[in-house]
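Write out the 3D structure for:
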Amino acid sequence: MTALTLSTAAASGLRADAIVVGVAKGAKGPVVAPGAEAVDKAYDGKLASVLETLGASGGEGEVTKLPAPSGFKAPVVLAVGLGAVPEKDETYGTDALRRAAGSAARALFGSKKAAFALPAEDAEDIGAIAEGALLGAYSFDAYKENGSATGKSGKGGKDAKGPLAEIALLGGKARDKAYKAAVERATAVSEELNRARDLINTPPNDLNPEAFAAVATAAAKEHGIKVQVLDEKALAKGGFGGILGVGVGSEAPPRLVKLSYTSSKAKKHLAFVGKGITYDSGGISLKPAGHNETMKCDMAGAAAVFAAVVSAARLGLEVNVTGWLALAENMPSGSATRPGDVLRMYSGKTVEVLNTDAEGRLVLADAIAKASEDTPDAIVDVATLTGAMMMALGSRTFGIMANDDAFRAAIHDASEEAGEPSWPMPLPEHLRKGMDSPTADIANMGERMGGGLVAGLFLQEFVGEGITWAHLDIAGPAFNEGGPFGYTPKGGTGTAVRTLVRLAERTAAGDLG
């Protein structure tokens, strides 16, 4: 993990590979952002014109490198675009800072140290810059022979390049409690989010349900989190027909992991439930070629929940947080669940399985029903659940459904504060009829149109009476198949971790009633 410190040193005297400054897009060309005054002065106040000559505009994410001025110990100045110049009396938003820091960190891959002199008005801005830089510096190369990591396959070596190793944040108050707390928070959340990315990116031959449960168990013990793992025998004894029905076709049996973080000062209890399909072939309803190559990411919801619970523990939040990881591998075989089979779920309801590729809702249903027994103040499930949600909202925005409008709005607010785009979605009652089954209490499929909403309505059936619940469908942003941008890498993104952490913080502060 990239090391991060607050520094009061002058940019000119800092030994580093690069000095990072911000540049914004003005009406008449690039504008040097606050924080870069000393650097601009060393260019005789002509940094903006030099950047313009080099083709820079200040557009978001744009990166321009140029030789550092005479007298600087760092050899390079890296100017990163912040987007439009803020309106009068406004400042650069935290997510603009977060994205710019991430772009700069990515551009400095292979460097040992960089000093970030981006505009920071307060501790919140410093926290955003720290978070963006740490997330942008992420790299997953454990399986590359010459990669920087030394994981299961990567050998690394003295010539191997890795992510930016050290970051010094300029402009912060190193001894100020608020600034120190902001950096500590950014470090804890970013480290756990990057661990979630590692899990999402790990090939399914190395991350089956048992292996995931082992990672969660080790982390729980390290951070004082109570952990319980139900194996296939315990699941059978407990009547978890949904989880077992999905995992029965695989040689790697399913698991249900419960992670419990408790605070002696807590007044509220949140339960997070994550879909953890470590590989989704579709089962007997087999996915066609072109739709199964990235299905190692179908456990991204469970990874997000895991990371959020550990983050809450590391931050010492005054709220009880329970995480449920519903882990299974969905494979076709002679023992696999067939279309037309009926499963008896943990709640006692029966489900007719019309499509074995609609498996996520089955494991989630059991976990939600089990989580309801603890009568938490709210349940939030997170899942890469439907292609329909991707069609509706694209690849960077997740959908929020809930049985309480105020709670749905609160989660949307939390996601916006965290910098994770989301959009509230409805649960139209008329779509429920499409899941009526002549054989069972409910079918796992309904109308094709509005499929993401149908999935939410299915899950709602398993929420305990009187419990506030929300469903986050992260199918779009969970795995980035395009090029990296801002602090978002190619591959696993860790979507929803920061939203869940922010929700827990707001709950601890009493903002959710």
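The chain has 14 helices and 20 strands.
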